Amino acid sequence: ALPYDLAGRRIVVTAGGTREPLDPVRFLGNRSSGRQGYALALVAAARGADVTLIAANTDLLDPPGVTVRRVGSALELQHALLGELAGAGGSGVDAVVMNAAVADFRPSIVADHKIKKVSGAGTEPAAAGTAPAEPAETGPGRTEPAEAGRSIALTENPDILRGLVRARAAGELTIGVIVGFAAETGDQQTSALDFGRAKLARKGSDVLVVNEVSGGQGFEVADNAAVVLQNPDTTAPGEPLQRQLARGPKALIGAAVCDLIAQRLRPDAGS
Ligand code: PMT
């Protein structure tokens, strides 16, 4: 049987991938399906937690016993999350799990009509705010070089996770445990795990679950493997700062994260 060690705990989980609109039919997005976040939310609810799931662009069924709020973009996700945290009679939440893949940037201008490929005599104008359109055909069988240089101006999205850490430190939000996830790929100099360590230091969450996502791992599929990193500044002495979780169903990764949340919320934790 599952432990009932999250009874009465209020946990907010984000899942899925944000979509940053370009025009009414296009967006910048990513491959997150929401499976990992949904699995974690379901496990937390089965262990007694009052779970709200903020789901960005997923097509999964609502997990039973979980309150689901649907969002599209990073700014919508931030708005929904802050609304959840400000609710609860101001008493805050026991844990936030930022599993969603949040876009770091969004198009600076969202066209209110579909951006056209071609502009020129007899064709529709390009959307306001797009780069100058390619030249139209100039004669039978002859087309000017096109497409080169067409670009999308981007604006940085807020770093929601880092914002939570800062707001908690400033006493503006009450959050027991802040968990981030990181989808990392290594390169020739730096391993995915080292990128994860640097990300934990930058973001300052209590826990960062690092998924190695090269070669099609992590996103969309049913299984996941992860290394769980704990922040040395907020972890009780003697607790492990790094733990490898074996490859397995996303529910098992979710359960391991729930173990850590339950342990960190125990009244004697850190004493
Ligand atoms: O959904 P699945 O198909 O099951 O795939 C699961 C997963 C691989 C997407 C998931 O387990 C995962 O790793 N999620 C985090 C992916 C990610 O966006 O990593 P990141 O390195 O870009 O961001 C790190 C952390 O900062 C995340 O907690 C993210 O929510 C948060 N973030 C990122 C950008 C931003 N502007 N604000 C944020 O809060």
UniProtKB/TrEMBL annotation:
Pathway: Cofactor biosynthesis; coenzyme A biosynthesis; CoA from (R)-pantothenate: step 3/5; Cofactor biosynthesis; coenzyme A biosynthesis; CoA from (R)-pantothenate: step 2/5. This is Coenzyme A biosynthesis bifunctional protein CoaBC. It catalyses: N-[(R)-4-phosphopantothenoyl]-L-cysteine + H(+) = (R)-4'-phosphopantetheine + CO2; (R)-4'-phosphopantothenate + L-cysteine + CTP = N-[(R)-4-phosphopantothenoyl]-L-cysteine + CMP + diphosphate + H(+). In the C-terminal section; belongs to the PPC synthetase family. In the N-terminal section; belongs to the HFCD (homo-oligomeric flavin containing Cys decarboxylase) superfamily. Its EC number is 4.1.1.36, 6.3.2.5. It comes from Nakamurella aerolata. Keywords: Decarboxylase, Flavoprotein, FMN, Ligase, Lyase, Magnesium, Metal-binding, Multifunctional enzyme. Binds 1 FMN per subunit. Residues 121-141 have a biased composition (Low complexity). The chain holds residues 201 to 471 of 476 of the full protein. Its cofactor is Mg(2+); FMN. GO terms for molecular function: FMN binding; metal ion binding; phosphopantothenate--cysteine ligase activity; phosphopantothenoylcysteine decarboxylase activity. Catalyzes two steps in the biosynthesis of coenzyme A. In the first step cysteine is conjugated to 4'-phosphopantothenate to form 4-phosphopantothenoylcysteine, in the latter compound is decarboxylated to form 4'-phosphopantotheine. Catalyzes two sequential steps in the biosynthesis of coenzyme A. In the first step cysteine is conjugated to 4'-phosphopantothenate to form 4-phosphopantothenoylcysteine. In the second step the latter compound is decarboxylated to form 4'-phosphopantotheine. Residues 121-147 are annotated as: Disordered.
